[in-house]
Amino acid sequence: MSAAPVFDALIHAPGRLQICAILSSVDAEFAMLRDAIKVSDSVMSKHLKQLEAAGYVTLTKAAENGRQRTWVSLTLAGRKAFAAHVAELQRLATMTAPAPLGQGFSG
């Protein structure tokens, strides 16, 4: 059963869209996410706080090799919202038809 198309402005921001895409297939550590989307710690923290406030991700802190690590998981609500957002993007994409070769927009 696929998700009903729903545009989600919170998820749509490029950084949060990338985070949700990564988390849709795997839980990830903060630094891995940060490096994957090429942002600073503070920007990553801001994105994660927004997603967490919406109930889309959970953050789990654990000590590993003497250092505090933060693991991020997409919640069931986050998975549903991401799937619905992707479905809406796909629906919108099908509404656009490429112009035939040699013809551009004339208005």
- Report the total helices: 5
CATH H-level superfamily title: Winged helix-like DNA-binding domain superfamily/Winged helix DNA-binding domain
> What is the CATH third-level topology name?
Arc Repressor Mutant, subunit A
Main β sheet profile: 3 strands, antiparallel
The first-to-last residue Cα distance is 41 Å
Number of domains: 1
Give average pLDDT, whole number. 91
**What is the approximate shape?**
elongated
Task: Count all strands and give the number.
Answer: 3
The largest beta-sheet arranges its strands as 1-3-2
* CATH class annotation: Mainly Alpha
The stretches of 5 or more residues where confidence is low (pLDDT under 50) are: none
Class derived from helix and strand content: alpha+beta
User: What is the N-to-C order of secondary-structure elements (H for helix, E for strand)?
Assistant: HHEHHEEH
Radius of gyration: 17 Å
How much of the sequence lies in strands comes to 15-25%
Concise description?
With 107 residues, this protein is an alpha+beta fold. The protein has helices at 9-12, 14-23, 30-37, 41-53, 76-94; strands at 28-29, 57-64, 67-74. It is elongated, with a radius of gyration of 17 Å.
